Each structure stands twice: as C-alpha cells, then as structure tokens.
C-alpha cells in the first residue's frame, strides 16, 4: 500500500494537479457551453427540426447538432485560453495558433463522438434515449437537450484531457520539461529570468572591461 500511495500521490502528484486544474477549467467551460447552448436555442428554430437527412440511414442532421457544435466552439476557445495560461502554463513558450490548432483538432474529434452520443440520447428509437415523459421540455430544467449535452460533456472531457496533455501541450513541455509539474512552474520561470539577467550582466561586464579604442592608459 505504501508503494502504491507513493506511486499515485508522490511520483505522479503533478498529473493530479494538472487534472485538478483541467477540471476547474472544464467546469467553467461547461457553464460557457450550456449558456451558449441556451442562447442559440432561444434564437434559432426548434432544436428537434430536421435540416437534412444522413445518407443511408434513418437519421437526420437536426438543429440541436448545430446548436451543440456552436456551443462547443465557444467553450473550446474558452477552455484553450485558460489551459494555456493557467493549467499547462505554456503561453510564454509557444505561439497561440501553434497550440490552438491541435487543441481544436482534439476538441473536434471529441465533438464528433459527442454528436453521435447526443443523437442516441435524443432519438426516440435509440435504446439509451432520454425519457420524453420525464424531460418534456416544459421548463429549462426539464429540457432533454440540456441534459443530453451535459452527459456528452461528462463523457468527452476525460478523453480530451488525456489527448491534450499528450499532444497539444506536449511539444512545449518537451523543450521545458519542468513545466510538466505546475507546482514548479513559477520557480522555473523565475530561474529562466535570472539566468537571462545574469547572462546579460556578464556580457555587459565583458564589454566594459575591454580596451576602448582611441583611449590610452596614462599610467602605461
């Protein structure tokens, strides 16, 4: 048990801290996602209206797929910015777009999986559909789309965390391995600043200690 405790909570404490921070960011992203979903649902057509059929199936692309995707894009951008500046602390070591496109790619992969799950939760012929009797869309808390979206987020978020940790921010941490442990980030950044200052000071001292052209030492 002691070895297991050391393995989980000592050797991998930075992973737990990263997961905690990612979860906090994710929780705020859930609120952003759901608020965006509420807004676009109120502004657009009925969420269950079909837009176009999916070839070779009995399914249709419906407005709730569009609303879910818009909510995802807004929340994805929100989550990325917070993860970049707080969770993984890579904003000073990589360009914004260089990190955002893999984060977006991971998110889009999760969104595709999420849309499949969302369809299964919403389609009345699905074996896992949410009850239209209990969730009859009469109030906000009884709206099937909101609960289905919440379930999708809960399923997709852990997968997104693993993929983002291993890919999106991995290149930055490869060049700055100490950034893998967020408890050491401030110390790492401070050390880098001190080293840069020391290098600049040494360069300045070296240039001032050399001979200056056009001047002669009167004691020579």
UniProtKB/TrEMBL annotation:
Compartments, record wording: Membrane
Main location group: membrane
Topological type in the membrane: Multi-pass membrane protein
Top-level division of the source organism's lineage: Bacteria
Keywords, comma-separated and alphabetical: Membrane, Transmembrane, Transmembrane helix
Record InterPro entries: GtrA_CellWall_Glycosyl, GtrA_DPMS_TM
Protein family (similarity comment): Belongs to the GtrA family.
The protein's name in its UniProt record: GtrA/DPMS transmembrane domain-containing protein
